[in-house]
Amino acid sequence: MMKDEGRLVIWPAYLDKDRTRAEGRIISKKSAVSKPEFDEILKAAANLGFSPVPETDKSYPRAWWEKSGRIMIDNIEAKNDSVRKIAAEIKKIRGN
Known about the structure:
By secondary structure, the protein is of the alpha+beta class. The chain has helices at residues 38-47, 79-94; strands at 7-10, 53-55, 70-74. It is globular and about 30 Å long. Part of the signal recognition particle protein translocation system, which is composed of SRP and FtsY. Archaeal SRP consists of a 7S RNA molecule of 300 nucleotides and two protein subunits: SRP54 and SRP19.
């Protein structure tokens, strides 16, 4: 059994409005947030009940020189739907 089976990987780049799709953003700019912080993503995922597991020492493969960290969440729906919900929760937390 693989260590990450049943979990989704969420990288900050997936939610970042300032990145292009080629740089890793997977949701629309309208849904994305500007410069998402690791702690914001973690808090939003916890608020949504995704049981997040932080891994701060990881680097996003397309930006291997940056230690952005990643968050593992429960795989209960499509990745894009989960990322969109996390971005919306971050907007709510920020008060946007």
